[in-house]
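SEQUENCE-TO-STRUCTURE ENTRY
===========================
What this section holds: a protein sequence and its matching fold, both as plain text.
Question of interest: how does this chain fold, as expressed in backbone structure tokens?
***
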Amino acid sequence: MRQADRDHRVFDHEKAIVADSWVMFGSMNLTYRGVTLNGEIVTVSVNPSKVAKLATELSGLFA
């Protein structure tokens, strides 16, 4: 993927769970090691614009 194509993306390699009013994303694997042992980063947001932006991007990837 060209850098210009990547610049508009909200996230790159992170995982994401998007609900109607919240989003959780980050590098953490949803495994025992990922949750309890590894030093991973996860962000939870209820910001409506961030939720909408991630939902739109995911819809474009998987719709």
About this structure: The two ends are 19 Å apart (CA to CA). Residues 1-6 have pLDDT under 50 and may be disordered. The chain has one domain: 3-58. The longest helix spans residues 48-62.
